[in-house]
Design brief:
single chain, alpha+beta, Alpha-Beta Plaits, 5-stranded mixed beta sheet, two-stranded antiparallel sheet, 64% helix, binds guanosine-5'-triphosphate, Nucleotide_cyclase, diguanylate cyclase, transmembrane, Rev_trsase/Diguanyl_cyclase
Length: 321
Amino acid sequence: MSFFGVLSITPYALYRYYTADLTVAIADSFAIISILVAVIYAWRTNNTVKPGLYLAIIFSTVATIVTLKLGINGYFWIYPLILFNFFMVSPLRALTIMVTVLASVVIYHTLHPNTVFPNHYQMVSFLVTCLLSSFLTFIFAFRTQHQRERLENLASHDPLTGAYNRRIMAIELNKAVRDTRSMRIYSLLIMDLDHFKNINDTFGHLTGDQVLVDFVRIIQASIRENDQLFRYGGEEFALLLPDTNHDGLEVVAAMLKKQVSSKLYSPAGSVSVSIGGAVLNSKESYPDWFKRADDQLYIAKQAGRNCYRIAAPDNLSYQAA
Ligand SMILES: Nc1nc2c(ncn2[C@@H]2O[C@H](COP(=O)(O)OP(=O)(O)OP(=O)(O)O)[C@@H](O)[C@H]2O)c(=O)[nH]1
């Protein structure tokens, strides 16, 4: 957008300087400089939301000035401005900005008749076509946003339980491993339902599915808001816990084990979970961290299930309940 913006505005800015139309020339130059500042900011911070809003406001102000100054030679810029704004900011923000721009033009025309538009009829035509274009673009942008959110949701969640899927787990665990700047302590729990195959074999897959859904509901209700639950296999789940140290991880594992065994039921009775956990060591890769937690899960299963094991920082297993 910025490339096309600079490409299309620069010749006009030069022409305005050439014809000594200083107000419009300065407005055009300001728009070009703003584009470059916004691009540099977005490039450096990876944040496109703030520069998007900044550019939408700058461009809308410049297009309004050009419209008021040049009349018919300026107001055609409002049409590409509509598309630009809906591309740069959220649909509601873009609509608000467009209504503000059009209101400014109409107020100016009312206060200074015949300066922008030769007559009221032309002003009304301009207003109606701009409003129509804005509303149609709003509907288009709103639908696109809604569809994108649905697609994002489908691509990141397990359809049965609603927990995050394996793809997001890899992204989030890698993010935690790379987060060396914040000094946060990240922990991981791997949870696996005990004797789940028996439930499927005895009562059928639908009953098994319901147990999985209930399990996720129980876990979600017991964890903090910024903990993230992933389903990475059939009845295997991972829980990422930021700001949780070894002692904290023990407390959470004990609490989740208790919550599950007291609240999760199949037609055969209570269902339990085995849990393995590990705190992220510095300079450890995501697969190594995951493996350390998974090894602890294996030890918990070997120890008779319905229990948890947490890797000690020196890789020794803590004997736990
Ligand atoms: N209902 C249902 N079952 C699933 C799903 N995904 C995997 N499974 C079943 O989960 C069961 C996993 O069995 P195992 O890996 O033997 O584990 P387990 O019976 O829980 O035994 P332990 O983990 O050793 O206690 C298999 O029967 C799979 O078919 C699913 O989405 N729905």
